[in-house]
Amino acid sequence: MAALAQSTVDAVRQRADIVEVVGWYVTLRKAGAEFAALCPFHEERTPSFHVSPSKQLFHCFGCGVGGDLFTFVMTKERIDFPGAVRILAERYSIPIEETREPAGGARSDVSRDQIFRLHEQVAAWFHRQLLEHAQAGPIRQYLLQRAVPERAWEEFGIGFAPPGWDNLLRWAASSLKLEPALLARAGLIVPRPSGSGFYDQFRDRIMFPIHDEQGRAIAFSGRLRPDAPETDKRKYVNSPETPVFHKGEVMYNLHRARPVVVKEGWVLVCEGQLDVVACTCAEIRNAVGTQGTALTDAHARLLKRFADHVVLALDSDAAGQKAVGTAFPTLARAGLGVRVVALPAGEDPSSLLRGGGAEALREHVAAARDYFDWMLDRLGAGSGPPADTQQRLLLAEEIVAAISTVPAPSHRSALLDRLAPRVGLRRAALEEELTRSLRRRPGRPGAGPEASAAGQFQRRAGQIAPAEEVLLQALLHDSRLAELALVELEAEELPDTPAGHVLRAMLRQADASGPVEPRALIADPAAAEASLISRLLLSAPPADLARAARDSLVALKLQWLDQEIDRLNEGLGAPDMSREAQDALLARKSALLDRLSNLKKIQGLARGV
Questions:
Q1: Pick from 116, 127, 169, 181: which is nearest to 152 by CA?
Q2: pLDDT per residue over 504-523, tens digit each?
Q3: Same domain for 296 and 430?
Q4: Residue 2 pLDDT
Q5: How many structural domains compose the chain?
Q6: Could you tell me if 499 and 468 are in contact, meaning their C-beta atoms sit under 8 angstroms apart?
Q7: What is the pLDDT of residue 440?
Q8: 105 lies in some domain
Q9: Which of 97 and 385 is assigned the larger pLDDT?
Q10: Which of 96, 129, 240, 486 lies 20 to 30 Å from 450 when distance is taken between CA atoms?
Q11: Cβ-based neighbour number of residue 594 at 10 Å
Q12: Is the pLDDT of residue 316 over 80?
């Protein structure tokens, strides 16, 4: 499908009512000017889920999910933004308008819709070649030997790219009447080095079509045939990045596995396509693949939409085990639990299915171990802590490095309780090492208000909050205060945080066209900014908004000045610096110190010191 027109999004936002939309899924009860309910996203006994008809926002103060009606439908239906817009547009009988892909690159008149249709046609052609081509016999035999029956060929659309340089190119020209430019834009053909003409991207390979989560064919992965000549060393050839395919954001087979993943609450992650096919043939239907790349943050966020836990079934060789260790921090940052399938040496899911049958594969998956138990076994501490003190310390470093990637403090604390005895150290010692690790880590989990005293001040209720959030809350509740912020704040003084991002957008809007509607600040309903805006708007604001804004402005400036002076100090310590450069840095540092001193005086006067 082509991209949704902004006019469709605007029409849905104007016509749909968040109270009505949320009411399709949960029972809302009036609570003053708002509505309340038990949260549909986590278990609770006391309602912490609130919906504001006046602000057209929702927020759960229990699990932190919040945003607008698009955020709600995306989270509840586990779909992307265009999917949520389409659901709401259809429900409110709003015509869905689409736009072509914006210009930029070769053949900007080629739409995403054309590429989707082309991939479907090419996938069907590859599949026919597997079934009918004279040279596909060894491929068919190989698939059967790999325990991939003919029913799986059909279900997964497995195909064959015949040998030769231009089979696909000639077929597309004769049967589909297509120009090469469209095939090139879709990543199916490659320009010749001479610059004259094209040749097929996929030649003499087993073909696996790749789909997005809506089930649209968006790319291909071509696997080396078992009897390939020595000259071809690449096991897999994948489609290049295209307008519809971004390798680091796509999981193989997710569109088929999604209903089972949602029902079961966990997803099995394999490496190759044949491993995913093997798991499915063994009736493990919540298996997905990584497309031969390391798990990315985008992959983790995608999986988190559908599952709470990930089970890793990566190859048992050294590379596969290293990939498990690399994947854990990425998955942990997304809030996913991680278990690991301990495959026998030299095995992968596909070979295990061939050798032991479906039951053996299912048994190994069912016996998946918690990541930290697996890690202790790998480090040689499965049966107890090492006797040698140095080994215990090295083990503790590895364990703490993994724990430090877990975002929830309560989860980290529980891991310390469980793992300290197994490492052979006192919990306090392990906790101290964790604290040091968190301090060293940029953007560390749990880095909250206590991380920088310069960016904080005491709110009326007594809790400490980051200055940028307090300023944002004041501006959201009284947009007239944006004029004060425009005069006082420089763009460079805003932090690179979700609150800082929203503040920049709000100040840009205020500078260009006056006060902005808070909902319009939610550029991406799936981003952290959406929950932040809903939380601040549906929370009680400071009693004195103007004073809160002034105090937070000063605190932000102090925070920036402290950081800038630290940066200058680092610069002054650089070796071989010229006298002129050193003098310039010293002059700037002196000016900043003067500003810092004046601001602290102002802050003291405001507090009556």
A1: 127
A2: 777 776 665 555 667 677 77
A3: no
A4: 55
A5: 5
A6: yes
A7: 62
A8: no
A9: 97
A10: 486
A11: 10
A12: no
Both 427 and 467 in one domain: the answer is no
Of residues 167, 259, 252, the one with CA closest to residue 218: 252
The first and second tokens of residue 525, run together, are: 């309903």
Would you say residue 104 lies in a domain? no
165 and 119 share a domain?
yes
A 10 A CB-CB count for 17 gives 12
- Locate 535 and state its tokens: 């939380």
DSSP class per residue in 448-481 = -GGG-GGGEEE-TTS-EEEHHHHHHHHHHH-GGG
Last residue of a domain, one of 377, 402, 428: 377
Confidence check: pLDDT of 182 > 80: yes
Contact call for residues 329 and 358 (beta carbons, < 8 A)? no
Determine, yes or no, domain membership for 586. Answer: yes
The reply to whether 341 and 410 lie within a common domain is no
Please answer whether residues 561 and 599 qualify as being in contact, where contact means their C-beta atoms are separated by less than 8 angstroms.
yes
Is there a contact between 227 and 220 (Cβ–Cβ < 8 Å)? no
C-alpha closest to that of 370 among 423, 315, 415, 330:
415
Q: How many Å apart are CA 327 and CA 312, to the nearest integer?
A: 9
Domain residues for the domain of 280 are 254-377
Cα 307 off chain centre by: 13
Phi and psi at residue 452, to the nearest 5°: -150, 110
Which has the minimum average pLDDT: 138-142, 254-258, 380-384, 603-607?
603-607
Averaged over 83-104, what is the pLDDT? 77
What does the pLDDT look like over 543-583, one tens digit per residue?
888 888 888 877 887 878 777 777 777 777 666 677 777 77
Domain end residue (candidates: 65, 99, 133): 99
What pLDDT, on a 0 to 100 scale, did the predictor assign at position 381? 62
- What distance lies between CA 14 and its chain's CA centroid? 29
What is the pairing mode between strands 266-270 and 309-312?
parallel
Report helix angle 349-366 to 273-281, nearest 10: 50
Q: Between helices 371-378 and 409-423, what is the axis angle to 10°? A: 30
Alpha-carbon distance of 305 to 264, in angstroms, equals: 13
Closest CA relative to residue 254, chosen from 297, 223, 294, 300 = 300
Instruction: Return the structure tokens found at 414.
Output: 């529980």
Are 261 and 339 in a shared domain?
Answer: yes
DSSP assignment, residue 479? G
Q: Are residues 81 and 125 in the same domain?
A: no
Which one is predicted more confidently, 448 or 522?
Answer: 522
Task: Give the CA distances from residue 40 to residues 45, 48, 56, 128, 302, in Å, rounded to whole numbers and listed in that order.
Answer: 12, 10, 18, 46, 19
- DSSP string over 311-348: EE---SSHHHHHHHHHHHHHHHHTT-EEEE--PPTT--
